[in-house]
């Protein structure tokens, strides 16, 4: 370590590698007789490896005088996981607050670690949905590699999670679990029957009567003849509401149980199992939340967290839309139900919900899971708007031209006509777009189209210049995340 430290201090680390642009001092790590240090060179981030021993031998890289230069490859990440367990993801369980910090770019986690380090909450750094992978062209291997190298770079040893988010298909569940993901968010939206909401009371009754008598009797006995007793929750079942909830959620509950028995119970390691019923047209009433939770417990299904679809709108990248008084009333019951069944309430589309963060921190007693992703992408876009106006203008215009296409993936109520005309905005004011809801949603939901856009010659329309800009502005991006995600945590009471 001394030789390496001396070389770093003397600015002679170039002896180990091509032109070194930046040294990540927090990454300096000793494992036996091997010393690691992450640097950024003209070829990007690399590991300087000096010394000897199994870790030195197993890391693949170019042997140079005095050591080895190892690229941040998937194979090297697996070796590092083996020798430095804190660089592999872990499950957290229900007794600590956790925050999903979805990083669609693979470069945000260092800023996330700098933000969350030392706080009473743990990061799920490797959180991506299959939808995000499809839109960005990344893999779950990429997601885990980026998170693990960020942990090494920042010397963060408090632990992080990896969430296979919004998984609907068994093949995707198997994929995430095979790679070692430590959180599984089961998206039940395709098993929830939203059509029930549009039926009349008579149509609901007739449909309900078609269910097996044994099933109807069981539900009626458990929810009409037995009072739900959850301290802090206001629950009032009516026969009509019960019939509707049974028709909406019964198939989804069977799906939850089936996946739990096939994939969670059989694991030889801890996995945080989250139930997501948030991405549906039907808001989750507290009574419906209780019904789902009670059925799961009755069937022996243990969960880490539940994500209901709250009243109002939790849209992407903007603050809560709706009646905050009603939200508070229902949140009190949702939180009480989660406490009663010993899991955490999960807040999806948690980005930028500043007006309700204090309520969430209050009613969950600071024990929650909250998910963000798009807002981290928008902080990167903000950096581009600040330092590369030409690129921002090209991206903004492309987003406008392809917005309708992007609405197939996300529910938003964006008013494109309310967005200031690009030609009317001076370069210095371009970052202001990130303060305006409609512009935020425009750039938010078009991330995949922007990152995967190609020119006629096959070159990437924006991505290469985008990532080059962010690499040059690494500290600006990290500072933007510290500020923006820091505001999230502060209002959540962390
Ligand atoms: O965009 C996605 O698919 C995810 O980021 C998803 O929205 C996630 O579950 C979330 O709620 C992030 O705020």
TrEMBL record:
InterPro entries per UniProt: UxaE
Keyword match Metal-binding: yes
Names of required cofactors: a divalent metal cation
UniProt KW keywords: Isomerase, Metal-binding
Active site: 165, 274
Catalyzed reactions per annotation: keto-D-tagaturonate = keto-D-fructuronate
Residues at which a divalent metal cation binds: 166, 316, 348
Pfam family, one: UxaE
This enzyme's EC code(s): 5.1.2.7
Purpose of the protein: Catalyzes the epimerization of D-tagaturonate (D-TagA) to D-fructuronate (D-FruA).
Homology family: Belongs to the UxaE family.
HAMAP family according to UniProt: UxaE
Protein's recorded name: Tagaturonate/fructuronate epimerase
Organism: Paenibacillus qinlingensis
């Amino acid at each position: 370590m001394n030789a390496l430290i001396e070389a770093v201090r003397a600015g002679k680390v170039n002896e180990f590698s091509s032109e070194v642009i930046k040294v990540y001092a927090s990454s300096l790590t000793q494992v036996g007789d091997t010393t690691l240090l992450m640097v950024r060179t003209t070829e990007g981030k690399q590991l300087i490896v000096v010394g000897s021993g199994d870790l030195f031998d197993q890391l693949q890289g170019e042997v140079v005088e005095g050591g080895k230069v190892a690229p941040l490859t998937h194979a090297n990440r697996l070796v590092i996981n083996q020798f430095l367990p804190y660089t592999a993801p872990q499950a957290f369980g229900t007794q600590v607050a956790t925050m999903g910090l979805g990083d669609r770019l693979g470069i945000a986690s260092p800023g996330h670690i700098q933000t969350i380090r030392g706080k009473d909450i743990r990061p799920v750094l490797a959180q991506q949905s299959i939808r995000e992978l499809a839109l960005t062209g990344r893999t779950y291997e990429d997601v885990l590699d980026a998170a693990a190298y960020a942990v090494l770079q920042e010397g963060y040893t408090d632990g992080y999670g990896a969430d296979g988010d919004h998984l609907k298909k068994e093949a995707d569940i198997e994929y995430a679990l095979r790679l070692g993901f430590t959180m599984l968010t089961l998206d039940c939206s395709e098993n929830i029957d939203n059509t029930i909401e549009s039926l009349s009371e008579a149509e609901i009754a007739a449909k309900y009567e078609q269910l097996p008598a044994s099933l109807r009797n069981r539900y009626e006995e458990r929810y009409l003849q037995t009072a739900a007793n959850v301290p802090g929750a206001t629950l009032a079942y009516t026969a009509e509401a019960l019939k509707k909830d049974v028709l909406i959620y019964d198939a989804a509950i069977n799906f939850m149980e089936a996946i739990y028995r096939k994939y969670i119970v059989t694991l030889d390691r801890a996995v945080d199992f989250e139930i997501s019923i948030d991405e549906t047209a039907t808001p989750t009433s507290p009574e419906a939340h209780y019904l789902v939770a009670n059925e799961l417990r009755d069937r022996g299904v243990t969960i880490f967290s539940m994500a209901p679809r709250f009243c109002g709108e939790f849209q992407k990248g903007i603050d809560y839309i709706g009646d905050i008084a009603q939200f508070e009333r229902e949140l009190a019951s949702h939180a009480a139900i989660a406490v009663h069944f010993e899991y955490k309430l999960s807040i999806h589309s948690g980005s930028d919900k500043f007006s309700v963060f204090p309520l969430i921190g209050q009613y969950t007693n600071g024990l929650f899971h909250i998910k963000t992703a798009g807002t981290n992408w928008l902080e990167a876009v903000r950096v581009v708007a600040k330092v590369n106006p030409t690129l921002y203008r090209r991206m903004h215009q492309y987003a406008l031209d392809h917005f309708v296409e992007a609405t197939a993936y996300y529910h938003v109520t964006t008013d494109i006509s309310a967005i200031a005309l690009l030609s009317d905005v001076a370069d210095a004011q371009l970052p202001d777009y990130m303060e305006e809801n409609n512009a935020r949603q425009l750039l938010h939901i078009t991330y995949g189209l922007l990152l995967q856009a190609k020119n006629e010659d096959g070159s990437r329309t924006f991505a290469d210049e985008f990532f080059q800009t962010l690499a040059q502005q690494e500290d600006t991006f990290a500072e933007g995340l510290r500020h923006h995600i820091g505001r999230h945590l502060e209002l959540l009471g962390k």
